[in-house]
Amino acid sequence: MQYDPIKKTLGKVFNKTPFLRILFYKLLDLLLLRAWHVRNEIRIWAGKSPSGNRKTKRFILDAGSGFGQYTYFLTGLSPSWFVDAVDVKDEQIDDCNAFFGRIGRKNVLFEKADLTQFSKPDRFDLILSVDVMEHISDDESVFRNFFDSLTQHGMLLISTPSDQGGSDVHDHGEGESFIDEHVRDGYNIRDIQEKLNRAGFTKTEARFTYGTPGKIAWRLSMKYPILMLNTTRLLFLLLPFYYLVTFPVAFICNWLDTKRTHQTGTGLIVKAWK
Length: 274
Known about the structure:
There is one protein chain. The chain is an alpha/beta fold. It has a single domain (4-273), classed as Rossmann fold (3-Layer(aba) Sandwich). The protein contains nine helices and seven strands. Helix 6 (139-149) packs across helix 7 (189-199) and helix 8 (212-231) runs antiparallel to helix 9.
């Protein structure tokens, strides 16, 4: 299943004006369960960690910034936080620099970078990596670069699929991911912590996301619409009516997923400290 072409098509539609793009960010924040979990973790870091004090100048890396959804969230939390946002795609970097310039966000810089080679020693108080590591084969090189780039007591926050059916792999045959762009279908919760320890991290925490309510939300919010749009782009016209019916259920399921502790799940939230 091709996910990137759908994202590109949506990007073209919502990138016509800054208002539409910000609206798109808000819709993603509501629809995508990973956004609920990631934003909650960032707020916890901002509220409880000394390095997260919103009045203190801090440096953050958005590692694999994509369309800029999380960079927009981070730069809006505090003008004292400066975000380095990196991605491997030139068009994403150029597009985001143009957009953030148009809305006057000066506490961010987008640049092209390969995470297997990107390192800024002792630079960042927080490194955010959302749905990135499942796209990178040489993940241990990236983890070592993350470790080197964090300040002392800095935190790494990762959102990625788990091996408990991440990318809906269990519904699409042995070894077949719902999203073709993934190089792995998910991480074993212990395996990713061991890799982070080998990279130098002294403390790690990992928990499952996308439990039973999250799986329902994922199907309603993402899987079924993507399946429809891969059939024909004309179905874009039906999306507002589709979400009018399904969104209330998906919203409740997203909320429930963030409030429960899951014994298993198709997603992971992983945190690690230097």
